[in-house]
Amino acid sequence: MSLHAAPHDLPLPTPPFVPIPGMVNVRDIGGYPTRELHRQPHSSIRRGLIYRGGEPSRITPEGRTAFKALGIKKVYDIRTIDEIGTEKDDTIPLATVRQPIVDIEGAERIHLNVLAENVAVRNKTESVKNWEKMGKNTTERFIAKTSEVLDNGSALVPLFAHLAQPNPAPIYLHCTAGKDRTGTVIMLLFRLAGVPKHMVAEEYALTNLGLREEAPKLVEALLKAPNLGLDEHTVKQILVAKKEYVLALCDVLDEQYGGAERYFRNVLKMSTGDVQAIKRALVVGKRPIFGEEDNGARDVETWPC
């Protein structure tokens, strides 16, 4: 199955995207090829187990129904405490700093702070400096941001421990937009399961499609943020997702940590048995729905609006 960039007047491709009214960038990470089951003619990531996307504060009643239909039992929120507010503002689609906690019936919300320090701005000068660095949109910027997630990976152990259980229930993973932090966690799982690097990058770049309708509102919200002082070009650079970023992060995982399996054992201190259990949960002996023909087939590395 090939996933080409969908024009704005066409719905997002399903799979992998899952339409949830009031939420953005929601997709099932299943169906990608793996190299884990060597004795099987085909193997792929299990569908219907892990969903990723943006934060759910604007989910509608129809969205709640659609979300519950997925059978999701745990929602892993990897935003920082400073990004989580207590009051909802319907004029801002995704918060520049804060969004409220939203509980969805039937799913337990679990907060995992994957950044060592909170990111809310308390000093305007430092804020603008940090966001301008992000706006340069360099691979180095992405690596600096996501490496902090790898360095603080112990915060993710509850999520991985859930996947190590027999027959784990489906989960939803999100940060704010479901882009970089969420993408880092998915990269770890994909590489552990043997998903080729170029397919990890393909999946990450789908965020440009997932945010296409929300992008103008995101730009407006960031431009209006009084403590940032960003121009439109910088904002757009912050929001784009490029394949080269995740490819570079895969290299960091290999070069600095010795690969995904050693990362899980040495950094996360997970047992060999648990690591193998995660692999069993992730990988099934089924033909992938996204395959080698997708390598380079879709151009979604552009500004999403």
What's the total number of strands?
9
Overall shape: globular
Q: How many whole angstroms does the radius of gyration measure? A: 18 Å
State the order of secondary-structure elements, H for helix, E for strand. EEEHEEEEHHHEHHHHHHHHE
Side by side, the strands of the main sheet go 1-3-8-4-7
Low-confidence stretches: 1-5, 89-96, 118-127, 294-299
What's the rounded overall pLDDT mean? 83
Distance between the termini: 24 Å
In percent, how helical is the residue content? Answer: 25-40%
Strand content: 5-15%
The DSSP helix count reads 12
Report on this model:
The structure is a single chain. The relative contact order is 0.20. The strands form 3 sheets. This protein has a 5-stranded mixed β-sheet with strand order 1-3-8-4-7, covered by helices on one side. The chain is 39% helix and 9% strand. Residues 1-5, 89-96, 118-127 and 294-299 have low confidence and may be disordered. With 305 residues, it is of the alpha/beta class. The radius of gyration is 18 Å and the shape is globular. The protein has helices at residues 61-69, 124-135, 139-151, 157-163, 180-193, 197-205, 207-210, 215-224, 232-239, 243-257, 260-267, 272-282; strands spanning 27-28, 44-45, 50-53, 74-77, 84-85, 99-100, 108-111, 171-174, 283-284.
